[in-house]
Amino acid sequence: MGLWDWAVAVYGRPGVQDACLALQDAHGQDVPLLLWAVWAQVDDPALAARAAGLARDWDALAVNPLRAVRRALKPGFEGIADPAREALRNEVKAAELAAERALLQALEGLGGPGGAANGLESLRTVSAAWKKSPPVDALAVLAAALG
Fold first, then answer.
1. Which residues of 52-84 are buried (b: 16+ CB within 10 A; e: fewer)?
2. pLDDT per residue over 30-47, tens digit each?
């Protein structure tokens, strides 16, 4: 199974979305990078560093600006009708998802399943490369939810 299909399937599992968003919002982690790490069973720090660099650059260029606009559009805005604002917000949300999908496709090109690492080891390897290591217990929550 390709990375995108796998990521969509596991994101719907109980606890995965909450664990991912907690790592993103509270600890500055990159969700597509984390999911790729588990899917690819990353145990190579050099590979993790290449992937983290790619994710960091793409986030700065595309994902983070789109996310900021989507979040800014969430509350009402005086003078703009809510349906128009929500329609635009949904278009930006779709663009943000497309940017994350593009990142997952690029990460998939770096390597796929094959390492011997378990989920928590892979998450620790890639979060160390990300240089914003969250508490291990936060990574363990995601690893457990992913199974």
1. bebbbebbeebbeebbeebeebeeeeeeeeeee
2. 999 999 999 999 999 999
